[in-house]
């Protein structure tokens, strides 16, 4: 049994082709027998929800840590800490750039990791925190 954290960007940050790439990656990550998904049930869809759907299709167990409120200090932060603590390995899946029709908040760099290689994603905060706990962490940036 291995607890695999899968976190990343919301659905609005993916084009249809990038969504297909992300789902294919999630399937590969969850494919090994004994894999247990750990994620955060993001209400904005995207990586968290796709990972849950794929885990269900593969018959994998899930540990989903939902935020208690939709607010950083009392909701997302404690949820993200639980994801990092529960996971043995964390995969943060995000995209290199915003889609042309994205109308949400945009940042020049991901302020969680100060990287311009990908868009801002709360998955970065979770991955960085997991690293401080000594967990193995991977960033997957879909171009």
What does this structure look like?
This protein has about 140 residues and is α/β, with parallel strands linked by helices. It has one domain (about 1-140): Rossmann fold (3-Layer(aba) Sandwich). The chain has four helices and five strands. A five-stranded parallel sheet has the order 3-2-1-4-5, with helices on both faces. Helix 1 (about 15-30) links the parallel strand 1 (about 1-10) and strand 2. The longest helix has 15 residues, at about 15-30. The chain is globular and about 40 Å long.
Task: State the helicity in percent bands.
Answer: 25-40%
Please, how many helices? 4
Mean pLDDT: 94
CATH architecture: 3-Layer(aba) Sandwich
As a whole number of angstroms, the C-alpha radius of gyration is 14 Å
CATH topology: Rossmann fold
Shape call: globular
Termini separation? 31 Å
Share of β-strand residues? 15-25%
Helix/sheet category: alpha/beta
Strand order, main sheet: write it out: 3-2-1-4-5
Total E-strand runs: 5
List the helices and strands and how they pair.
Blueprint (H helix, E strand, L loop, with lengths): L1 E7 L7 H15 L4 E5 L7 H12 L2 E4 L7 H15 L2 E7 L26 H11 L3 E7 L1
Parallel strand pairs: 1-2, 1-4, 2-3, 4-5
Helix pairs in contact: 1-2, 3-4
């Amino acid at each position: 049994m291995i607890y695999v954290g899968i976190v990343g960007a919301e659905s609005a940050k993916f084009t249809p082709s990038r969504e297909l790439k992300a789902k294919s990656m999630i399937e590969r990550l969850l494919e090994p027998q004994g894999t247990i998904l750990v994620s955060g049930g993001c209400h904005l869809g995207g990586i968290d929800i796709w990972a849950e759907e794929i885990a269900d299709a593969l018959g994998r167990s899930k540990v989903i840590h939902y935020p208690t409120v939709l607010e950083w200090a009392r909701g997302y932060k404690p949820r993200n800490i639980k994801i990092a603590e529960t996971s043995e390995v964390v995969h943060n899946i995000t995209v290199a750039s915003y889609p042309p029709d994205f109308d949400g908040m945009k940042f020049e760099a991901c302020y969680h990791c100060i990287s311009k290689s990908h868009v801002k994603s709360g998955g970065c905060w979770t991955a960085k925190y997991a690293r401080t706990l000594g967990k193995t962490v991977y960033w997957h940036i879909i171009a």
